[in-house]
Each structure stands twice: as C-alpha cells, then as structure tokens.
Amino acid sequence: WVVGIDPNLPPDPKEEGNAILVYPNPAQNSLTFDLTEGSKSLLGELEVKLLSITGQTVFETTLPAGETGKTISVAHLPPGLYIFVVEDGGAMLARGKVAVVR
Known about the structure:
Blueprint: E1 20-23, E2 30-35, E3 46-52, E4 57-63, E5 69-73, E6 80-88, E7 91-100
Antiparallel strand pairs: 1-2, 2-5, 3-4, 3-6, 6-7
C-alpha cells in the first residue's frame, strides 16, 4: 500500500470488477483512463486527479458525462510514482498507483 492511502478504499483498478482502466503503466508521455463495460452506465461527470506520493494534487481534469475515456499528457510531470483518483460526485470509483518514466 502507498502511504496515505486508506486500505478500505476500492481495490486497484487492474483487478477485475473495477470501473476504470488506467494505462499504460508505467507511462511516459500520456495516460489513458477508460470506463470498463460494466461502468459505462455512469452518467455523471467524473473527476480525475493525479497526486504526488505525498498527497499533493499535481494534475486535475474531468471526464465529461457520456464520455467513456480520456487520455491526458503526463509529459510535464517529473518521473516518479503517482496516485490516481477517479471520483463521481465525491464518491471514489477507483484509485491506484501509476509510474511516470522517461
């Protein structure tokens, strides 16, 4: 587990049954967030955040209602380990770790 992440949160999105797939991991210049088949019925706008390992928000965007995926640039971030969080109206749908490498 990553320091500062509650072990009672939903499981890592690579595991079966999660709402969001995040790839590639490790990422070099871009990172893609895709809704899985079972979660495409989510209709609200989703918040996507990348946090530093210390919990500071380093990137924030939204996945507009009705869209099933979004690719973001991580080229501006220094190499390292980051935490991603995907929320729907404040309710956490997914969280996990992603590495940015060069």
